[in-house]
Amino acid sequence: MRRLLRLTGLPQLVAFYRYIYLNQPRLTAAAGSALALLISAIHLYELPAHYAASPVWGVLFALLAAGGAVAAAGIPAGARRLGWGLGAALSLIALLGYLASRGAGLPGLEEFRGRWDYPAGTLAMIAEGLFLLGYLSVRTGLAVSYPQRRRWHD
């Protein structure tokens, strides 16, 4: 494994990555909260259609919307697990669920199979992907979301 890493040059990239920091904690937290709220709003908007298709999926969409709102409130409050962690888990679940429902299909949502042209779903998929990228940048230290842990401030 070490040889493979050495051949790919990945350790040099990771070593370089440690010296890059985005010191904009308010912007990072605001972007994370805005994306979590957008994901929550999209799932709330789609709730009636999915509830009509299957009440189970309607309840899951309601839980996703509520969890997104909690994550959006937790990010600026400084609750790392409640904010970024919950938001990333919900984004990953929603993204995988969307891909599965459009690809192979899910029970109770057969009418959505193969419908990749749905604008709200595409917007949700983009927002969830961006939230996951933001989460990874905060977790790896590229972006600063909690400046008090590094003694950095705006």
TrEMBL record:
Source organism, top-level taxon: Bacteria
Entry keywords, A to Z: Membrane, Transmembrane, Transmembrane helix
Species this protein is from: Rubrobacter xylanophilus (strain DSM 9941 / JCM 11954 / NBRC 16129 / PRD-1)
Segments crossing the lipid bilayer: 27-45, 57-75, 82-100, 120-142
Name recorded for this polypeptide: Uncharacterized protein
